[in-house]
Design brief:
By secondary structure, the chain is α/β, with parallel strands linked by helices. The protein contains 8 helices and 5 strands; from the N terminus they run αααβαβαβαβαβα. Helices cover 42% and strands 16% of the residues. Helix 2 packs antiparallel against helix 5 and helix 7 runs parallel beside helix 8.
Length: 206
Amino acid sequence: MTPQQFYEALKEFGIELTEEQKWQLHRYFELLVEWNEKMNLTAITDPKEIILKHFVDSLTIAKYVKEDKSIIDMGTGAGFPGIPIKIYRKDVKVVLADSLNKRIKFLDEVIDKLKLENVETIHCRAEELGKNKQYREKFDYATSRAVANLSTLSEYLMPFVKLNGKCIFMKTIEVEEELEKAKKAIKTLGGKIEKVDKFEIPESDL
């Protein structure tokens, strides 16, 4: 996929980019494809599907993150949604955490090649990191993509947010039953469900 095809695909979903953001996102895309040949970063290999299910999906939550705030992306995997948000919102401080060190090495390479600032990687499990005073209750936002069911995910993410901070749970559209079961866990942890927004992202070709 050429850089121009990549930019046009994102533009179809209303994602307008500066020249620097265009270069960074496309370079990230290239690194993801390159490294994925050596290690399993994503099961999605079709270029258009990567843009759709990783890049576009990640950027759907950027509008919820206020200016000059901090966000931890727990179980970030290949860097989604944390790195696309960081590229799209330079003002935001991002921490990327994952339990597999090989993914962290990939993320460090991406950060270096893209010259990203105010972004940190951590090799750690959520249960352990949530007890670390350096990270516990230190973030404005905590997020994760499809790491676990909402009850478990609440227990993973909520320890990281400050008082009045927010967790952004990225789930598939079939979430109602899971949400109902998670209400008790969220309340026990001192939180509440503020809102549920749904996005329709096509499952196949753009």
